[in-house]
Amino acid sequence: MATDVQAPNSGWEEIDPDEKINLLAPESNGTSAVKEVINSPEDVLLKHLEISIVESEKRMNGPLAIKEYYSVYLIETKAIDRKWIIPLAPTGSVWRRYSEFELLRMQMEENYPDTVIPPLPEKKATYTRQTQSSDNIDPIFVDRRRVGLESFLVRVASHPILCRDKVLIKFLQSERDWSDIDLNAEGGKYVHQAEVKLKNMNALLRVKKVDDSLEQHRQYSMELQTGLGNLLRTRVRLADRLYAIHKLHSNYGRVFSEWSALEKAMGDGLQKAGHYMDCYSASIDAILEEEDIVADQLKEYYYFSQAVQALCNRHQMAQYQVEKAESHLALQKTSKENYDGNDPNVLSKLWGKWTGASETLEEKQAKIRTMDQNIDEAQVQLEATKNRLGEFTQRAKSEVERFQKQKDDDLKESLANYVMLQLKMCKMGLQTWKHIKEALQEVP
After folding, report:
1. Which residue range forms the structural domain that includes residue 246?
2. Which own/partner pairs from 350-358 qualify as long-range (CB within 8 Å, at least 24 positions apart)?
3. Which tens digits make up the pLDDT trace of 259-315?
4. Cα separation values, 187 from 40, 87, 120, 198, 279, Å
5. What is the CATH number of the domain that holds 67?
6. 111 belongs to a structural domain
7. Nearest CA among 204, 193, 391, 209 for reference residue 314
8. How many domains does the chain fold into?
9. Is residue 261 part of a domain?
10. Measuring CA to CA, how many Å separate 305 from each of 271, 291, 296, 301?
11. Given a cut of 90, is residue 94 above it in pLDDT?
12. Residue 314 included in any domain
């Protein structure tokens, strides 16, 4: 039955063709960071070096009986100009595993403890829809992680402090010997992570007084993480229900198409209605793919909140070092006071002379001088620790303020894109049902 069926997105007056839905393309995950760098007066690496992860590849290691699959990512760099504090190669092309990205970030946490280190994308899929695979080597998930890893590199290269790290340049442009840490060494990164967690727990339990402003930032970051987690879970449930509703229309489309073959008089109208039902059912796939991109942007700040909490933990460790230095100084002073106040009686003096254990005046003065020296050293150590804590606190607060500004801009853009997607979906549904109504009205 020959019918002239019009596509549902043809001539839709409700959809503005100038709407910037294309901002949700996967390649735009680091767009906001790039725009911020272009408009920033700071001289950062991203202004001198183009960084992109162009592809991913699945590889295998181990014997065939116990083979293991993993993904590697090709990082390509191109020097815009070579006027940088660290020599840059004109071009670079290196393959990196996800574990190497983890190692790079781990080293940055050690070298720059007063900095909010940008987070890596998730290693395993979380907050996934029912139709998505949770396999970490699934091609779709690997490609989304590729975009997230590129966003991580862009954020690091646009950071005024992290971008000047020599290890970062080696990571981007040197195939080998970029790190001093061996991943295959005994324990490796897992032992290091366990040690960091134990130190953080020890400082959290023993520190007596915390910085109120940073403690407020810690509480805020925990609330932000909880809020984004709830938002992502709610979005997954809504997406699953929308998917089921849209796919249900494919059944109606099939019924209408089969019905049109039986009813000659109503065939054209029924076939058009069935076609629009099928198009409406298929439209949800593209919508949810774009939603997944927005969800990845929200996940980035879900993990960013953990990075802020890690910064606060490192600040507490610095505070704990000050308290330890204060306790050590107090112990040295107490030891001297107890020694000075210890005036042995006559019996003790006689016993000391008889056993030969009594102190001479010279020995006592030498011991007092040693105690004074220990007190001076403890005092110097305390002052140095306090100075380090003061500098740490100042830089940490500056970093948190920078994070807050970046977060406000990025989340505003992500949530606006999500709203635009919902409007787009509603307009498509409205227009589809208008076409279905017109098709059914044509039925005699």
Report:
1. 21-178+210-339+373-441
2. none
3. 888 887 888 888 888 999 999 999 999 999 999 999 999 999 999 999 999 999 888
4. 41, 34, 22, 15, 54
5. 3.30.1520.10
6. yes
7. 204
8. 1
9. yes
10. 52, 21, 14, 6
11. yes
12. yes
